[in-house]
Amino acid sequence: MALVGNGAELEADEDIFEDALETISMPPCADMATGGQQLSSCHTKQASGQHGSSNVSRLTSTSTKMDLKGGLEECAVALNLFLSNKFTDALELLQPWAKDSMYHALGYSTIVVLQAIMTFEQQDIQNGISAMKDALQTCQKYRKKCTVVESVSSFLSRGSLEQMTEEEMHAEICYAECLLQKAALTFVQDENMINFIKGGMKIRTSYQIYKECLSILHVIQKNKIKQQFFYEFEGGVKLGIGAFNLMLSLLPARIIRLLEFIGFSGNRELGLLQLQEGASGRSMRSPLCCLTILAFHTYISLILGTGEVNLVEAEGLLAPFLQQFPNGSLMLFYHARIELLKGNVEKAQEIFRKCISVQEEWKQFHHLCYWELMWIHVFQQNWMKAYYYSDLLCKESKWSKATYVFLKAAILSMLPEEDVTATEENVAALFRQVEGLKQRIAGKSIPTEKFAVRKSRRYSSSLPAPVKLVLPALEMMYIWNGFPVVCKRKDLSENLLLTVEKAEATLQNENFSDYSVDDECLVKLLKGCCLKNLQRPLQAELCFSHVIQSEKLLKFDHYLVPFTLFELAVLYKSQGEIDKALKTLETARNNYKDYSMESRLHFRIQAAVHLWRKPSSD
To answer: Is 441 strand, coil or helix?
Structure first.
């Protein structure tokens, strides 16, 4: 039950949100899933994009109270400013009313939190926490002073809106949306299974509010009750119900079963449908519905899925935004991502560089582009340029220093010795830095950092001599699911195969060591992925089978076998052997545990089972 009272009830609500905010963090790409939470173009005809010229913005200086209509209209102006890269202007427009208007509070706090997430500066994080607490208190002032369930029960029984005003209904949506931001951060950033359960418990209030608001929406639609801003309420409900269902559907099956005990459920098709309907409406939240779907198709489906991406829908959703905001950083970023996933690598590079050049106000947007450009150069095996962008990330971004330094060292490892010398970098010293850079967010380690630390131990100063990693940049490319990205480019896949085969030949000529079997199996997995991309299934299967048969000989990289089983299942599926593929996935899911990146593989297995299972078996 979502409590909307005063005293202890309000304090409990605030504690829930305060606890949730303590773990703010996500990967370089994640802000795209949350940062657009207040982005809108629904009132473009009212919002000129010029802060000082808007009739709406003059409300601030002439009025002592901001009503619902004024709040919605000013937020439309602010959202338009944000999408035009005028971030400070948007904040300055929203801030004066942030403690008096629920929509100003929501808009202002979202931008402040986004800024904190992108800079990762402690002061910015504290500002974000403070802004969100203020936003919750502002929304609380407008919420009905009883439980939402009581409000809905009364509403349903009497068939009128007397029990909840339109303003109170919007307050529920705004309050829940603050909590939804944390939900998005939790599911995108933290891949630890237990933490997902904890996060789910903390956002239950938000989920319950959305469910009750959905009941209100159904009654309004059934009774054809007229409300001045019904479309805004409807948009908020569709965003919340859609996003929750979509996020929860991503979770591995055993986590979903646990969450069902406390009232959660996740239906991917329902989630996408709600978001699609929200995106096609005229609500201020329509753009966020679009951006949520874009994040799902261009990022989540790749990193936590099989790499099967709906680019047709993604392009269609982005097109009107790109036309309206041709120089908007957010739009350009998604445009580049789509081109990259289409295989247009060179065009994607060009657009990422444009995304960097169009604004200087928020340098953190540049870091997102550096990350993408680094990977593009890895795909192309242009190691010096990949090193350049990894070095920029190490110097400028506070996000996951351990990952950045590991990647920098891994990329340098791919270069000839004379080229490494020219950079004046010490590869072994870089690897030795990684463990000291590992961070804990609210007491929790980041899975990719833990993976990097484990791999870096081969360069530990406690060893007689460093044991060089084999193809470390391509191994990280695999971990980040880069092979499905390059599959549309035969030339890139062929070049990668040549590099892997060269490493394979080198290993065969080296003396046997404790790491020999692990290195050989890694090379076989990477080779199998290249062969799979080149439509050479029999050779790919031989590589995968070699890894699986070597299971008991592995000493360190135990993750290789379950991940190889996943790749083998993908191979079977591509050949039409669906039942065989699903059985192989079950083997990978049920027979292995306590290996590196286990959570990420379970996400991918869940996505594959969802996509491949026959309708009759659902």
So the answer is: strand
C-alpha–C-alpha distance, residues 343 and 487, integer Å: 8
- Taking the C-alpha atoms of residue 535 and residue 488, their distance in angstroms, rounded to an integer, is 11
C-alpha separations of 379 from 35, 199, 344, 391 in Å: 28, 35, 12, 17
The values of phi and psi at residue 3, to 5°, are -80, 140
> Angle at which helices 516-533 and 490-508 pack, to 10 degrees?
160
* CB-CB neighbours of 546 under 10 Å: 17
Amino acid at 197: I
pLDDT > 50? residue 192 = yes
At 165, the pLDDT band (50, 70, 90 cuts) reads confident
Side-chain-side CA neighbours of 301 within 13 Å: the count stands at: 23
Rounded CA-CA distance 233/212 in Å is 13
Q: Give me 519's structure tokens.
A: 């290195």
Burial 374-388 (b: 16+ CB within 10 A, else e): bbbbbbbeebebbbb
Question: Pairing state of beta strands 444-445 and 440-441?
Answer: antiparallel
Report the alpha-carbon distance of residue 158 to residue 477 in Å, rounded. Answer: 59
Task: Report CA-CA distances (Å) from 18 to 12, 14, 35, 137, 180.
Answer: 10, 6, 19, 12, 13
Strand runs labelled E in 430-522: 440-441, 444-445
The proportion of the chain whose per-residue pLDDT surpasses 90, expressed as a percent, equals: 56
Q: Is the pLDDT of residue 188 over 60?
A: no
| CA–CA dist 499, 595 (Å, integer) | 27
Q: What is the CA radius of gyration of the chain?
A: 25
At position 32, the amino acid (one-letter code) is M
Task: Give Cα 310 to chain centroid, integer Å.
Answer: 16
CA–CA dist 141, 134 (Å, integer): 11
